[in-house]
# Entry
Amino acid sequence: MYQQLIDKLNQFPSGAPKTEQFVELLKSLFTEDEAKLGAELPIFPTPLATICDSLGRKETEVKPLLESMANKGLVYHRKQESTDLYSLFPLVPGIFELQFMKGEVNPKTKRLAELFDKMWHSGWAEDLFASRTQMARIVVMEKEIPSGVEVFPYERVSKFIDEADYLALSVCYCRHEQELLGKSCGRPKDVCLQFGPFARYVVERGFGRKITKEEAHKVLAVSEEAGLVHLSDNTQKHINFICNCCGCCCGILGGITRLHKPHSVATSHFVLEIDADTCSACGACVDRCHFGALTVNEVAEVDPDKCLGCGLCNMVCPTESLKMRRREEILEPKRNFRELMGAIMQEKGKL
Ligand code: SF4
Ligand code: SF4
Ligand code: SF4
# Structure
């Protein structure tokens, strides 16, 4: 039944590896009953009664299993008025992230970190980033958007926070996973922001805590100071997360920094520009870039093909020689998560 569960996980855009090691990983997360049920669950949130009808099983039998799986970060749950909706989580973003979001350090999380690390280094990670449409996008630091430029609403990180009806904060699962392996870069971990229904799930199931808008704004400021890149769903509305990432530990940015697939993440609609007349060649900007886009010879130079438009380098330039400019060609994010999933599934031949 674990192979059937892998087949089900492969219906999601992110897919899943078909390896013995991955079966071992699934066995440490799902009991046999849970794996059997997981293999038959819908991939989009569906009313409990509909799930039970299609399985031919009673709610009293299925609901306790679903609840236990929701508490373990294997199944998503939300309420729509008084109706319970459930769906299987994808491997990424979903099952992987939730195993490390609590920041727990124990033999089980250490073993999981080893197994997930092997998964990230298997051929599956190459497939993860194989679609033209990316799952995530870089969001430029808002204070680095040049004045006088027309800004799309989805480019303002602060707008997502100010308009959110529910916000949660959890541990950065990527850096926590790397810490469990003794490999973390040591940058701040309390920086993963969740939004809306997903944030409610995170809080209700103990994966994170509810926070205010003021706290969320502080998280952004701390992250920028620490040199972390803002990353979000590649959608215009109803985002689920804003992550604050490093190029070394982050599974998503690792598509660029470790797998050398430059299109693993959508760039912001900005790119860096350098004023060679004022640059003092101090080199301070070079270390801020996670993507190796900056070099210093006579003056600083940027490789526009490597610059993802995060804005982090601008903060440290003592001569104010750096600024962001609009890219000439921009590709708008999908309108919402369902559209995003649909586009990636189509491109990967899953629809
Ligand atoms: S995606 Fe970024 S912030 Fe989110 S958990 Fe990974 S490294 Fe941390
Ligand atoms: S050069 Fe690097 S740090 Fe600067 S904006 Fe581009 S990606 Fe970000
Ligand atoms: S930080 Fe500014 S002055 Fe220093 S090398 Fe970079 S662009 Fe030039």
In short: The chain has three domains: 2-89, 126-266+334-347, 270-326. The chain is about 35% helix and 15% strand.
